Amino acid sequence: MTLEWFTVFFSVLTAGIGYYARHIIEKRKELQNEVNIERRKVYQQFVDIIVDDLHSQSEPEKQDFKAVNDAMFSFYKKYMLYASPDVINAMGEYRQYNFSLLLGKDTMNPQIHYAKLSKVLMEMREDLGLSNKNLGTHGERAFKTMLMDYTEYFS
Length: 155
Description:
Elements: H1 2-57, H2 65-82, H3 85-102, H4 110-127, H5 150-153
Helix pairs in contact: 1-2, 3-4
């Protein structure tokens, strides 16, 4: 009788633990799914800023540095909450390079600039679960469609 009671009790306990573990896993997936939805929106905002800025460089008289800067700070508000540490670190490297250019500590090197920028984009893609296969060491091949002088920077 004791062995039967123990077997029944152990079976019910195991089933309860299994159900609870599955419930926790499902809740984590649900939360992660919500975070990924927000990440997509935030990362899309960054891509929009960058592509618009690249496009405006083809028409220098239309470049609006203040608008780009304002858009970046608007992006930072959400990015700080949703970006992964890898994206935050890559973004930090990219922005620090830009700041050193603005302060005159460095001279513009398009290859370094686009390598750092493409690293940010590659980390964002990875964060969203997308493949970076065949996009180059830092994802720089993503710029092939936007840069007419791509081969001057990446060969």
